[in-house]
Amino acid sequence: MVLKKFLKKIVAISFAVFIVMPPIYATGSSIPNIKVVNTGGKLVLNASLKNGLSEEIIEVIKSGVPVSITYKVALKIKRPLFFNKKIDTRVIKRSVEYDILQEEYKLFNNSGRKITTKNTDDLDEALLSLTTLENIPLIETDKLNKDKKYFAEVKAQLNSKRSWFPFDYILFFFPFLNFDTSWENSSSFSLK
Hints:
By secondary structure, the protein is of the alpha+beta class. It has four helices and ten strands. A hairpin with a 4-residue loop joins strand 5 and strand 6 (115-120).
């Protein structure tokens, strides 16, 4: 009976905090700088996330909670009278985890085809790794038509892995640990 009352109070407080709490997550997150570059035989993508990591998220990273950003990338044919046609998609996942004992950040990069890891003691390097996509291979140019116009779309989603008991149950309502950006488009281009 006492446990039931306690749980009801916890749920009521959690709900009240969720309703009343002002958003402390990074508002205005976007991916404004999407560039697709033809390297001669392949298209590669460069992009960066702006306003994606608030001070609260950085503090969560420093405390040792793993944080991941998943980027969804789509290459499309621009068709003015019809829906744009999707040619290729990629999911790229960047993660950072601070190891408190070794005082270093572990960076994980899953580009969809290859997983790489790196250790660094520099917080700025860790944050740059989370928010920047550089030379991400999209598609070989011989698979594309030179008469068509193309563009790339990118979307980012931040996820925090909260697995410590009881925080995974108590902190479920904190929105700053998760966000989605809208789909952002590169400028259209054609092969030359």
